[in-house]
Design goal:
By secondary structure, the protein is α/β, with parallel strands linked by helices. It has 11 helices and 13 strands. It has one domain: TIM Barrel (Alpha-Beta Barrel). β4, α6 and β5 form a beta-alpha-beta unit. α6 crosses α7.
Length: 348
């Protein structure tokens, strides 16, 4: 009968909500439904309900700052910094500029983490110095993280000792095909980070219209099975001038469907892996939102806060619009997230 939900999808979703493991092929089955299907809507509704319960409907803000940018030898065909297409000049952020950024984004006490971004080719001593600058400038309750090129184990240890407690590192979709980086090198860096004691987050990205359900699930599950602390999904931003710009992007609704299915797929897991999703800065949904400052890989503007505009103020507004009624502060307390709070924090 038309209008009925697919029985197999109902069975998979029921088992997922009961914290029972669902297979990779079952995740792919759910992702094969159109983004506007009732099966996709049910996946989103279930995941949203569970995640809001887990975080007590509390929003969380992180910040990314591009500290070492310019022409990148990774030559990722989707990135603003690819040496094949970029107009960006080599840049290492001065200490005083980073201090100003850190002071600005943390002044209202509701940023819980700061991630320092570099390109593939960078001097690790520069990043170590910048990690120390950020660590000294902000409260110890704010986590300092890195989002950088590939690293040897000794470099990871040095960065951890400098104050980096977290890292974002990804085995990208199309690694070695749409990038010039050996996939095994990316995997080795993730293992080096984890072995050094750095809490490592990964992501399935950059998802394009051509990405299959099977490869998305396989990539996501690789992070789960290899010791990463959390996972996410992110779509490809068609940055003007990049090789894959004409390949387009998936919709927010399709990304939300993917995020929800992958979140439900890990409910059974009792290990260190968790699912949090970054909304529109890193892309995704749920309660973790990242603002972006300085030069960025998904924006041709010299300062992405003046381009795509994913600032801390934007992040507060996004969480408010999505119905979060509290916001997490760096000390673990929460504040009421309402219009008064947005006004008080210069967000409207």
């Amino acid at each position: 009968m038309s209008g009925q939900l697919d029985p197999k999808a109902i069975d998979i979703l029921t088992r997922a909500c009961a914290r029972k493991r669902i297979r990779e092929d079952e995740c792919a089955y759910l992702l094969d439904f159109p983004e506007d299907s009732p099966e996709a809507d049910m996946s989103v509704a279930l995941a949203d309900r569970i995640m809001r319960e887990r975080c007590d409907n509390t929003g969380d803000i992180g910040v990314q700052i591009g500290v070492i940018t310019g022409p990148c030898v990774g030559r990722c065909r989707f990135c603003n910094f690819s040496a094949d297409t970029t107009d960006a000049e080599p840049y290492v952020m001065p200490d005083d500029v980073l201090r100003d950024y850190v002071r600005e984004v943390t002044r209202f006490g509701d940023v819980t983490s700061i991630s320092l971004l570099t390109i593939q080719n960078f001097e690790v001593d520069d990043l170590i110095r910048l990690v120390k600058v950020a660590r000294r400038e902000c409260d110890k309750g704010i986590g300092i993280s890195i989002n950088c090129g590939d690293l040897e184990y000794e470099d990871c240890v040095a960065l951890r000792e400098a104050g980096a407690i977290g890292a974002y590192h990804v085995l990208r979709l199309g690694e070695g095909r749409d990038t010039s980086i050996d996939p095994e090198r990316r995997k080795r860096t993730i293992r080096n980070l984890i072995s050094s004691g750095i809490i490592t987050t990964t992501c399935t990205e950059p998802i394009g219209p051509e990405s299959t359900s099977e490869e998305i699930v396989k990539n996501y599950m690789w992070g789960l099975n290899n010791g990463c602390a959390s996972g996410a999904v992110m779509y490809r931003v068609p940055v003007p001038g990049t090789c894959l710009a004409e390949g387009g992007s998936i919709t927010d609704r399709r990304l939300l469907q993917m995020s929800s299915v992958m979140a439900l797929s890990t409910l059974w897991y009792s290990g260190p892996f968790s699912f949090f999703r970054w909304d529109l800065g890193y892309q995704g949904g749920f309660n973790k939102v990242f603002a972006e400052y300085a030069a960025g890989p998904r924006d041709t503007a010299a300062l992405t806060e003046n381009g795509r505009g994913r600032t801390v103020g934007w992040a507060r507004r996004e969480l408010f619009k999505k119905g979060y009624d509290k916001i997490l502060r760096y000390d673990g307390s929460t504040a009421v997230l309402d219009l008064e709070y947005l006004r008080k924090t210069d967000s409207i």
